[in-house]
Structure formats: C-alpha cells, structure tokens
Specification:
The structure holds three protein chains of three kinds.
Chain A lengths: L6 H9 L12 H6 L4 H24 L9 H23 L1 H7 L10 H11 L4 H31 L1 E2 L2 E2 L9 H4 L1 H28 L1
Helix pairs in contact in A: 1-7, 3-4, 3-6, 3-7, 4-5, 4-6, 6-7
Chain B lengths: L1 H6 L11 H4 L1 H42 L1 H9 L5 E4 L2 E5 L2 E5 L1 E5 L5 E11 L4 E8 L6 E8 L13 H4 L12 E3 L8 E3 L5 H32 L1
Parallel strand pairs in B: 8-9
Antiparallel strand pairs in B: 1-4, 2-3, 4-5, 5-6, 6-7
Helix pairs in contact in B: 3-4
Chain C lengths: L12 H4 L23 H23 L1 H24 L10 H11 L7 H13 L15 H12 L1 H4 L19 H8 L5 H6 L11 H13 L6 H20 L5 H8 L3 H8 L10 H21 L6 H19 L8
Classes of the chains: A mainly alpha, B alpha+beta, C mainly alpha.
Chain lengths: 207, 227, 336
C-alpha cells in the first residue's frame, strides 16, 4: 500500500495529468454523443460525477470484503444503482434535459471510466482517497466534455450556453453539431493536448 | 447438501466453496440497492409521470387558440378544461389509438381538439401535437414535441414561422408540399434544403387529419345535441 | 526526409522498397510502380493542363462567379498549405503544385453562388484535415478536395444543396435554371443532351460541360497521368445501371446519356477518382475501384435524397482502397 498515490495526488492526477478523456481515452461514448451543446455536456458531467464519486465511496467502504472473482459484479451493481438514481432524478426535475440526453444517461453504467476507477483506486485505497480520486476524475471528465462542447456549440450555432457569442451573420457549421463534428473536435483537441505535453516534457528535459 | 458433500471431497476452507456463501455480499448489496431504488421510484415516479402528461397538456391551449389568444386567456385567469378522449381507429384491420384531448372553455362550450401523432422523419421519429377546431373542418395549430432532424435544416420544422402555415388549413383536402412558395390554399412551403423533413410532417398531418376528421365532427355534433 | 515527390511515396513500403531501413539489396516483387522520373510535379502540371478546358468553360458559362470561386480557393489553399507546412517544420511543398490542383478541383466542384466563406473553409479543411493531418501528400487516405467539399456540403447545406444552385436574379443565364440533376430528381425530366454535352446548364462550376471534361480526361489518360481503368470502371457501372433503369422506365434512351453527361460524373471520373494517392495500385484494383464508384454514384442519384453522388461515392471508395490493394496486389511466390 505504501507506494499507492495519496489522496491529493489522486485528486490532481484526475484533472489533467491523467485526464479520463484526453490521457486515458475512457468514457468516449458520452464524450462524442452529448457534447453538441454546453448544457447537455454539463448535465452529463454532473451525472457522471455523482455516479463516480458515490460508486468510489461505496466500493472503498466494502473493499476488504471483495472477492477477486466477484468484484466486477459488485462494481457493476453499485454503478447501475447510482445511474438509475441519477436517471430518475433527471426525469423528475429536469424533464426536457432528460429527454435530450435520451439513452446516454442509462449508458453511464457501461462507461468504463467508472469501473476503471473502482478497480484501480477505490477497491484498494481508503474512503477519503477514493472520494478525492472520484472528485478529481469527475472534474477532469467534466473539463474534457465542456471543452469539446464549447468548440462544437460555438462553431455549430454561434452560441455558448444558449447565449449568442458570435454575430448573427456567423454561418452555423452544421457539421459540428452532427457526429462527424464530435470526432473531428475530439481528434484535434487530443492532438493539441499531446502537442502541449510533448513541448512541456521537452522543455523540462532540456533544462 | 448432504449428498453433495458425500460426492465432492471437502477442500480446505470447506464452506467457502459454496456459491451462495461466496456471493453473500453480492446478494446483500443487491437487496440494499433494490430497496433504495424502490424508494427512489416511489418518490420520483409520480413526478415523472406528471412531467410526461404536462408536456402535452401545457401546449393544448396554444395549439387550439394560438399563442396570443392562449396568453390572453391565461392573463384573464381562465383555463381550458382539458379531458383525454382517446379515439380508436381501425383501418385495414390495423387498430390504432389516437390520444385525443378535448378542450372546453369555462362555460363548457367546445374549444377544439388536440391529438398527438407521430411518424417517421428524415432522421428519427417525429412526434407532434395537432389542433382541430370543434367541427374538425380545419387545423388550428401544430406543435412539434419530439424530433431529431438535421440541425440547421430539418429541425426548422420546430420554428413558429413554418408551423404557422398549417393554421386554418382545411382538413377535407390533403396538404401538399411545394418548393418556392405556396400557391394554392392547400400548399405548404417546404423548408429550403429539408424537403424530406417537411414532407414527413405533412404526411403525419394528412394521415391523422384524414383518419380523425369524421370521428371528431361526429363527436362535436352529439355534443351540440346534448346541450 | 526522403524525397516525397515520387509518384507513390512509400504507401506500401514492402512492395516498393523505398523504406530507408531496408536492407542494402532489396528485391521487390512486381509491380514496380515507383518511378522516380515521373515526379509529382510533372503529374500535377499535366493535371493542370487537362483542367484548362474546364476552367475556360466554367469562366465562359459562369463568368464572374467562376473567377470568384477560383481566386478564393487558390488563395486559401496555398495559404493553408504554407501555414500547415510551416507548423510541421517541413520544407515548403508549394512548388509541387499539388495544392494548386486541389484548389482548382475544389473550386470547380462548388456552386458559383456559394458565399466566399464556403470556399475558404473548404480549402482550409481540404489541406489540413484532408491532407496534412495524415502526413502530407501521398499519405492521405481521402481525396483532399472532396474532404473539403464534404465538410462544407454538410455544414452549409442551405447554400450548398441542390436548391442553392439556382438564383433567379442572377445576371448569368445558367444560374437562373435548376440544375439538370435536381430537375431530374424532382420531376423526372432529363435535360437536353446537347446542352449537357456543351455545358450550357446550371451546376457546380466545372461539372457542366461534358466536352471539356472529355478533352481534359482523354489528355490525362493518353499521358498516363490518370489511369484509364478508373473512368472505364465508372462508365461501365453507370452505363449498366442507368441502362437497366432506362429499360424499366420510359426515358427512350435518354437516361444513360443524361447520367453520363449530367452532373459531376465525367469531371469526377477523370479528375477526382483518378487521384493516384487515394486510388488502388494495380490495374485490376483500379477497375474494381471504378466499378464501385459508379455503383455508389447511381445508388445516390437514384435512391438517396441527394440529386448527385460523385463526392460521397469517391470518398466511400477511398475508404476501401487499402482493402482493394490487399486483394489485388499479387503476392510473390512462396510467401504465405
């Protein structure tokens, strides 16, 4: 246990150095599907944050009782429970948003980001560490979703969070609102992140 | 259990090999989670159902009276009395139920009918609300409840300007989609670059208007006789 | 950096033996396609010469509209090429004329009525996402000009769709009529074949004149810059399918000619589908590629919402080119 990262390290790693989308390439289904606007992206990020943090805490609480060959079943069970709660909650309080997101909220169950964090961190470390890992990873995931959504919504509609930011003569790039726009934006941003990473490591290596 | 143990020689750790005992945590968690989910459903279920119904009911005055008149009515503190009157239609052996809503003014005179209808669009299902006057001789309004048409093109079917073309259209002749401006009273101007989406909406309307027109008119006649 | 100007820069390293780490004596099995004499630049100049009739015709028919699109696309393609090459710290590749060819093909595939930003965005996308991102000329999977056009076609459907080609108030005669392909899609009327042949119709700038495309295309095929197998495959498929449709419908033999001369078919068959980088290597593969492109074109023209399908057909067949290569490149004896 001694060489496991501490709670603070887990928290910081989740945001950028081990960003779920840009560094681990996990959770790409919602990343591509719901990022055509800031509002759905934010809702999705919040739902994933809720499920991730809760699942991490519960898994960490029962980590000493886990049997190796039954752990995945338990992870899935836990995740599914919290996803159902999030889904029902959205349908009750944010009905229009829940209709917009459609099947993608229930699909959080199969978001490999969450099962990965349960496996890597929560099933091995204390509740506090697991919780801060969950918060860090959720922030990183939200950051990635919102960055893609910002590009797509601004180019695709000239708006940001539903408010017009570009002049109305802006020709909407409809492709950015469609699935190809998601792939293009993700690929280009991924390239940008890698480019920054390479430059940083070169600079630190050179000095 | 006894027979099992006599066949399989007990291994070190004995009872741990029993599946049920091994899975105690899974079973316990499933139970706890199940109960808590039941609680959540108990609490939120009615709200979700109400959301679904409200979505339709909220739009009924607008579809029958138009946005301005509906607002005027709401300002006076009056509301339409809306009651569900599902109508069963049998065409070519196929049974179909239209979720029709009947709307009355506060003096109980008939204000009109609204039905939910759906059909295939360009991308996915289109679901809409269609309003009729009491005798069902013409349309009073259209509202798109659900659509996933192409952003910037097909999804212009939700725009008020396009939907307003359908107001006061007669129900006894089929509507026709034309490009570059409506010429005859039963023409609907297509959205530029989205002829298929425009046609889909018109097809849904033509079908439900043709199927419901006579039934609704009949209901209106019996309604008058009752008075 | 190895010289990127060979006809087929090491797309298939093993077959061509241009690999730098290759052993000193490298015996490559046939076909030996890499030909250092036949440089990219020579090819591109050939393509430019072949494009001249089309450029003249488009300026003759669409006047100012054609000049505007050509200037916009040339400026933005060259600008984008210079910019992205600089970002990648590669030597300046403008002199191989590939960006010029992309620009002209792109401009000729746009409607004259399209606003200025369409040309600019299409050019930048063509060069960046279509070409540079894959590693530059020779590495790209899809035809750059068509990537750019697809991007703006989907983005700005309201100014790129069939209806947008027509502008009743335009001073140029051609633009006041519906395009022949759209007219056929909407009303089932085939255009006047002689108009289609000479090009006195509306459409994308370079696609209207069948005769100009034929002259340029034949020049390319005779010079062996374009492989004749690809247009041959396309014509075979279109001829068969349009012929079958003709027999079943009542078009009195017009349909085949309408589909052969109408729309971007000839332009696409000679200038777009024959791009050596994105089409198969062997002549058998090229014929299969042509047949597939022709099938898709007719599929789109007859059954989709679009009146024209050359762009999507070429892009789809580009995607299966590596597969066709795998099937058709002969394996040396004894290799498993």
């Amino acid at each position: 246990m001694a060489d496991q990262p501490t709670a603070t390290e887990r928290f910081i790693q989740g945001i950028l150095p081990e960003n779920p989308v840009y560094r681990q390439l996990l959770g790409l289904c919602p990343t591509l599907a719901v990022t055509n606007g800031m509002k759905p992206a934010l809702t999705m990020a919040a739902a994933v944050a809720f499920v991730l943090i809760c699942a991490n805490i519960v898994t960490s609480l029962i980590r000493n009782l886990l049997k190796p060959h039954l752990r995945i079943v338990i992870f899935t069970l836990t995740i599914a429970t919290f996803v159902t709660i999030a889904d029902r909650f959205l349908a009750a309080y944010l009905y229009q948003m829940s209709k917009t997101l459609g099947p993608y909220i229930p699909l959080i169950i199969v978001n490999c980001l969450i099962i990965c964090r349960c496996e890597v961190c929560a099933s091995k470390q204390s509740v506090f560490t697991a919780a801060s890992d969950g918060v860090g990873q959720a922030l990183g995931f939200g950051l990635a979703l919102l960055s893609i959504a910002a590009v797509r919504e601004i180019l695709g509609t000239g708006m940001f969070f539903g408010y017009r930011v570009l002049p109305s003569v802006w020709p909407d790039w409809v492709i950015m609102m469609l699935p190809p726009g998601a792939f293009l934006t993700l690929g280009l941003l991924l390239g940008a992140v890698n480019w920054i990473e390479i430059r940083r490591s070169r600079q630190s290596g050179g000095s | 259990m006894v027979t099992n143990e006599s066949i399989i020689p007990p291994e070190p750790g004995g009872y741990q090999n029993n599946y049920l005992i091994q899975a105690w945590l899974v079973l316990l968690l499933a139970m706890v989670f199940g109960i808590s989910l039941a609680g959540v459903q108990q609490k939120l279920g009615p709200m979700i159902e109400a959301n679904k119904v409200n979505e339709t009911l909220e739009k009924v005055p607008e579809v029958i009276l138009g946005v301005k008149n509906a607002e005027r009515l709401a300002k006076k503190g009056e509301a339409l009395i809306i009651t569900p009157r599902p109508i069963k239609i049998e065409t070519a052996g196929q049974k179909k139920v239209y979720p029709v809503f009947e709307a009355r003014y506060s003096d109980l005179s008939l204000a009109g009918w609204v039905t939910k209808a759906s059909g295939r669009g360009y991308a996915d299902k289109i679901e809409l609300l269609l309003g009729f006057n009491p005798d069902a001789t013409h349309l009073t309004g259209l509202f798109i409840l659900e659509q996933k048409e192409t952003p910037g093109l097909g999804n212009k079917i939700i725009e008020k300007k396009w939907r307003d073309q359908f107001v006061k259209k007669s129900t006894d002749r089929r509507l026709r989609v034309v490009k570059g401006g409506a010429k005859t009273p039963n023409d609907i101007d297509a959205i530029t670059g989205a002829t298929i989406s425009s046609r889909s909406v018109v097809a849904i309307i033509n079908k439900s208007a043709a199927e419901l027109r006579e039934r609704l008119a009949l209901l209106a006649v019996t309604d008058k006789k009752d008075k | 950096m190895i010289n990127p100007m060979t006809k087929k820069p090491n797309k298939n390293k093993v077959e061509q033996g241009t690999n730098e780490e290759a052993p000193a004596i490298h015996v490559a099995p046939s076909p030996h396609i890499s030909d250092s004499v036949f440089t990219t630049r020579k090819m591109m100049v050939d393509v430019l010469i072949a494009l001249l009739p089309l450029v003249f015709m488009s300026i003759y028919i669409f006047e100012f509209y054609a000049v505007k699109q050509l200037v916009i696309c040339l400026a933005s393609c060259l600008g984008a090429e210079a910019l992205f090459v600089k970002i990648r710290h590669k030597s300046f590749t403008l002199t191989d004329f590939s960006a010029v060819v992309t620009a002209i093909i792109l401009a000729l595939s746009l409607p004259g009525t399209a606003p200025w930003y369409v040309g600019v965005i299409a050019s930048v996308v063509a060069i960046s996402i279509g070409k540079i991102i894959f590693g530059g000329l020779g590495m790209n999977i899809f035809n750059p000009a068509m990537v750019g056009r697809a991007f703006v076609m989907i983005s700005f459907a309201s100014v790129m769709g069939a209806a947008a080609y027509t502008d009743a108030g335009a001073v140029v005669d051609a633009i006041t009529q519906a395009t022949p392909m759209d007219a056929f899609k909407q009303t089932g009327v085939t255009g006047s074949i002689s108009h289609l042949f000479w090009g006195l119709t509306n459409g994308s700038l370079g696609e209207t004149s069948a005769i100009a495309a034929l002259i340029g295309g034949l020049y390319l095929c005779i010079r062996r810059t374009a492989s004749w197998e690809i247009p041959a495959g396309i014509f075979t498929a279109v001829f068969l399918i349009a012929g079958a449709a003709d027999v079943s419908g009542a078009f009195s033999g017009h349909l085949v000619l309408h589909h052969l001369f109408g729309g971007a078919l000839l332009f696409g068959a000679f200038f777009i589908a024959t791009d050596p980088v994105t089409s198969p290597l062997t002549s058998k593969g090229k014929f299969i590629f042509g047949i597939g492109t022709g099938l898709f074109i007719m599929l789109f023209r007859l059954f989709s919402g679009y009146p024209e399908g050359v762009m999507f057909a070429v892009l789809l067949m580009n995607a299966v080119t590596p597969l066709i290569n795998r099937w058709t490149i002969p394996r040396p004896l004894g290799e498993v």
